[in-house]
């Protein structure tokens, strides 16, 4: 099954292309595509408000690259966590609980989150 992977960048490098699919390197948690599709369908507008980058810090975007790599900076993590928490009240997915834990760990350590889309 297709999935989205989320991990923490221990060391974020400006102007570096994060283009390799390396979920093991970032100790990623996985969320099935159907679960994330449900989050996107319920909270599309809120997801579009999350400021992030596509593969490199010079390519700002809003939301997640569903089929690419997204870098979510520390200043956007609370908004992202709020959306996922709100969605999980309805979906009640163990995968989303693991994602919330991963986001909170990144927030606590002021780290970037990396997202590998499907």
Question: Can you describe this structure in just a few lines?
Answer:
This protein is of the alpha+beta class. The chain has helices at residues 33-42, 44-48, 77-91, 94-108, and strands spanning 3-9, 29-32, 51-54, 60-62, 69-72, 112-116.
Topology:
Blueprint: E1 3-9, E2 29-32, H1 33-42, H2 44-48, E3 51-54, E4 60-62, E5 69-72, H3 77-91, H4 94-108, E6 112-116
Antiparallel strand pairs: 1-2, 1-6, 3-4, 3-5, 5-6
Helix pairs in contact: 1-3, 3-4
Supply database-style keywords.
118 residues, single chain, globular, alpha+beta, six-stranded antiparallel beta sheet
What is the strand arrangement across the widest sheet? 2-1-6-5-3-4
Number of helices: 4
For the secondary structure, the number of strands is 6
Q: Which structural class best describes the helix and strand composition?
A: alpha+beta
Radius of gyration: 13 Å
Question: Could you characterize what this model shows?
Answer:
The protein is α+β, with helices and mostly antiparallel strands and 118 residues long. 38% of the residues lie in helices and 23% in strands. It has helices spanning 33-42, 44-48, 77-91, 94-108; strands at residues 3-9, 29-32, 51-54, 60-62, 69-72, 112-116. The protein has a 6-stranded antiparallel sheet. Helix 1 (33-42) packs across helix 3 (77-91) and helix 3 (77-91) runs antiparallel to helix 4. The mean pLDDT is 96.
């Amino acid at each position: 099954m297709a999935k989205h992977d989320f991990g923490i960048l221990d060391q974020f490098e400006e102007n570096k292309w994060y283009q390799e699919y390396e979920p093991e390197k970032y100790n990623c948690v996985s969320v099935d595509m159907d679960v994330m599709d449900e989050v996107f369908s319920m909270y599309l507008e809120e997801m579009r408000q999350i400021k992030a980058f596509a593969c490199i810090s010079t390519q700002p975007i809003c939301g997640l690259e569903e089929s690419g790599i997204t870098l979510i900076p520390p200043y956007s993590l609370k908004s992202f966590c709020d959306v996922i928490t709100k969605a999980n009240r309805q979906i009640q997915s163990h995968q989303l609980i693991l994602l919330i834990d991963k986001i909170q760990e990144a927030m606590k350590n002021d780290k970037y989150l990396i997202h590998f889309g499907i």
